[in-house]
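Structure in, sequence out. Go:
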């Protein structure tokens, strides 16, 4: 494993330094040097966690205390990993993945209310910056070309196929983030994987030479913009693509993860009622939330990123202006008819928070006789990404 290899490398360097100190008869410096190294690492981590902590509190005075709590949590996780013989909780997981999940879950659990209600806007900048760092390396790997787009007064990002072919497909991807945080660029890797997988399917299964462009769409988020603004933004960017890409609806794919997947489904339902001739070819929905009234609980999903403190704040905030009981009920896709929508692929993992919703959504589809929805339930600690490779995260 990567982290285990890092420990081995550190041990090797310690051994080399120790031998050098012995050679120069300066072994008495070993302990001071070790303490200095540990202190340097501690300070570096502390500074980093202080930066993270600034997004998890509204008081600058409490930032150092938040940083210390984060450091203690990290030490606890590292210790647990060491006591397990440097083995992750699940054999399919890397420790880096486990560490990311555990730390993110801890942050959402401890500070979810502050993140959603106080600092949602502030968190978007660093998330976007992280996505920008991933953008070009990911595009180089998959052979796509990033192209910014300003449409409907919002900034989106194309992942363009460099080869313009006669057959053209556009994927519009709506990101997740509880309707309040995240950024389209955080899905750069997923968008490029979708591009690569669709290219492979068209070529290998249908012998079609097709260019695939992926649009990472931006929408306005809560708390500044409440329901149905985000949903309408996603609808409007679809109309923009139809108008400006010289493409027909049967060559457009809706895609989304979590909250974005819900909006992909809901906009298909909207098109069914308003403009059925504009239905897209298919919708790809990864871990969609389909029932806003029953979103699960922490004790049922101990390995999912999403905690009560986050979910129980972001959804009520997003739906804050939906006060009518009947209207609020119909906001959830599961409370609407599932007939007469385009083919939909839906995927949930058994370790994630919305898995139980997925089971109920499938039961409703079966009860209505819907036969154009494909359900993929990924069992245990493994799940497959869209490229067909195994991805060790189910939440």
């Amino acid at each position: 494993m990567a982290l285990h290899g890092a420990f081995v490398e550190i041990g090797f360097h310690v051994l080399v330094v120790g031998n050098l100190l012995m050679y120069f008869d300066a072994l008495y410096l070993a302990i001071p040097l070790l303490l200095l190294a540990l202190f340097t690492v501690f300070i570096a981590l502390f500074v980093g966690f202080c930066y993270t902590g600034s997004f998890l509190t509204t008081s600058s005075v409490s930032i150092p205390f938040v940083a210390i709590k984060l450091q203690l949590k990290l030490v606890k996780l590292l210790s647990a990993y060491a006591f397990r013989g440097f083995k992750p909780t699940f054999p399919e997981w890397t420790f880096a993945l486990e560490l990311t999940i555990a730390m993110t879950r801890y942050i959402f659990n401890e500070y979810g209310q502050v993140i959603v209600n106080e600092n949602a806007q502030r968190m978007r900048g660093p998330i976007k910056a992280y996505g920008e760092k991933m953008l070009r390396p990911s595009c180089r790997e998959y052979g796509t070309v990033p192209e910014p787009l300003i449409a409907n007064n919002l900034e989106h990002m194309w992942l363009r196929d460099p080869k313009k072919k006669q057959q053209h497909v556009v994927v519009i991807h709506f990101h997740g983030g509880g309707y309040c945080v995240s950024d389209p660029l955080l899905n750069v890797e997923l968008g490029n994987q979708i591009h690569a997988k669709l290219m492979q399917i068209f070529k290998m299964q249908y012998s079609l030479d097709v260019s695939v462009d992926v649009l990472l769409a931006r929408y306005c988020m809560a708390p500044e913009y409440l329901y149905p603004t985000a949903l309408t933004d996603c609808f409007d960017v679809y109309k923009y693509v139809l108008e400006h890409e010289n493409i027909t609806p049967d060559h457009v794919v809706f895609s989304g993860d979590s909250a974005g997947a819900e909006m992909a489904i809901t906009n298909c339902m909207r098109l069914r009622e308003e403009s059925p001739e504009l239905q897209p070819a298919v919708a790809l929905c990864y871990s969609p939330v389909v029932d806003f009234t029953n979103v699960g609980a922490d004790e049922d999903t101990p390995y999912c990123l999403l905690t009560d403190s986050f979910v129980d704040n972001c959804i009520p905030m997003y739906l804050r202006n939906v006060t009518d009981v009947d209207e609020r009920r119909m906001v959830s896709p599961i409370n609407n008819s599932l007939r007469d929508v385009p083919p939909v692929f839906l995927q949930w993992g058994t370790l994630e928070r919305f898995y139980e919703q997925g089971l109920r959504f499938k039961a409703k589809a079966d009860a209505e006789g819907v036969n154009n929805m494909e359900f993929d339930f990924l069992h245990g600690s493994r799940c497959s990404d869209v490229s067909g490779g195994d991805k060790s995260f189910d939440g």
